[in-house]
Design a protein that fits this description.
GAF-like_dom_sf; 11 helices; single chain; Heat Shock Protein 90; Beta-Lactamase
């Protein structure tokens, strides 16, 4: 009765495509008619693979009593055992194993894993004597045993990596589900805070108290932006992208100017210069485009040099809406550029405010519009983010209905 589950070991050996060929080569090199790979522990001997021309009667998964074999001795001293004529051998003529199984010739080579663990043996047996070149047999079969051990180690490494990846995916999925639930549930108390702050601001007369109410309003608005970013991140990761719903709009310029005004009000120390020139009609998701501008502008305020102007340029050119946000400040490190639009990048690197989701969400909004986003950054020229989205001129109604795809594929710098 097995006390250990050898199923994984049997499957691991079965996956090694070279094992059948190795067993045939063992028989050829030794001249014996039975070859096997055995799993050997301090309690059990189990067949993992076999090539049997003498009908010895073992198949993969079959066991021999450990004490009836020589393999337990090999497990302990880890050296090969080879003899070609047991009845004439000074030691093995008296050993119980050849007598019990009627063996004359025998070869057994230890299989040892890279970490030093003893797996088992590569062995060959025959009831007839064999004329063995011990040195050649030992060298050849040792190489075969090492090949088996190397394959077992490789499989173990691949399996461990696969399990780690699956665990990471499961952990990430659960984390993102939790983020989505928390973000959704936080909206209700936040709405209550906003309503309470609005009521306080309307009722209070004294200036200090009114300033407190205004501060609560601003904090609630900032928290609302964080929650929306969390929800968008969860939607993007769990649902295949942030949803974008383009439509024909005639208020885009006013909407974008409102966003700039809100950021300027929330950050009175920031100097924001802007030029917004867009056609009366545009085809886009106006809410998402405003969110895109808000995230890029908030990024510039957060990482720009204090007191230096921030410049926003928005225009339409060749049926494309171009949003450019420029600021001065410490240039973005070249090593950070490839990861800049991935979630958490700046927060992981100890950058200042926020969750590190703003640029990720901005890039997903651009992707949803089938546009592109790029960044340049240097000490001399400052940092500029440029988002380009398909749009249409007012005299191109067909383009508004069915906009053409951008000529360049979506890419992140």
């Amino acid at each position: 009765m097995s006390t250990i589950n050898f199923g994984p070991d049997l499957r691991a050996v079965a996956k090694i495509e070279a094992v059948p060929m190795i067993l045939r080569m063992v028989k050829h090199v030794t001249g014996m008619r039975f070859a096997a790979v055995a799993r050997v522990t301090n309690k059990q001997w189990v067949t993992c693979a076999v090539d049997d021309s003498i009908e010895f009667g073992l198949a993969p998964g079959d066991e021999l009593a450990l004490e009836t074999t020589i393999c337990d001795e090999i497990r302990q001293h880890r050296t090969p055992v080879i003899f070609g004529h047991a009845s004439e051998h000074p030691v093995f003529s008296k050993h119980h194993t050849p007598k019990l199984y009627g063996l004359e010739s025998y070869v057994s080579i230890p299989i040892v894993r890279a970490n030093g663990d003893f797996f088992g043996t590569l062995c060959a047996i025959d009831p007839s004597p064999a004329d063995l070149d011990v040195a050649t047999v030992t060298e050849t079969l040792t190489l075969f045993a090492q090949l088996i051990a190397a394959n077992l180690d490789m499989q173990a490494s691949v399996d461990q990596s696969r399990r780690a990846l699956e665990d990471e995916k499961e952990t990430g999925h659960l984390r993102e589900q939790l983020i989505a639930v928390l973000g959704h549930d936080l909206r209700t108390p936040l709405s209550a805070i906003r309503m309470g702050a609005d009521l306080l601001e309307s009722k209070l007369v004294e200036r200090p108290e009114r300033r407190l109410a205004v501060a609560i309003q601003r904090s609630a608005k900032s928290m609302g932006s964080l929650i929306e970013n969390i929800l968008d991140f969860a939607r993007g990761r769990l649902g295949g992208g942030i949803p974008v719903e383009p439509r024909i709009v005639d208020t885009l310029q006013a909407d974008l100017e409102r966003v700039i005004g809100e950021i300027a009000t929330a950050h009175p120390l920031a100097s924001i210069e802007h030029s917004v020139q867009v056609p009366p009609l545009n085809r886009c998701d106006p809410v998402r485009v405003c969110q895109l501008l808000s995230n890029l502008l908030a990024n510039a305020v957060t990482h720009g040099r204090r007191g230096a102007p921030i410049k926003v340029m928005i225009s339409c050119d060749d049926y494309q809406l171009v949003i450019s946000v420029w600021n001065q400040g410490v240039p973005i490190e070249p090593a950070l550029m490839p990861r800049l639009f991935l979630p958490y990048t700046r927060s992981e690197l100890g950058q200042r405010e926020g969750l590190g989701l703003g640029l990720y969400i901005a890039s997903e909004i651009v992707k949803g519009h089938k546009g592109t986003i790029a960044v340049t950054s240097s000490e001399a020229d400052g940092t500029r983010f440029t988002a380009t989205l398909p749009s249409a001129a007012p005299d191109q109604p067909q383009a508004l209905i069915a906009p053409t795809e951008p000529s360049t594929p979506d890419s992140h710098p």
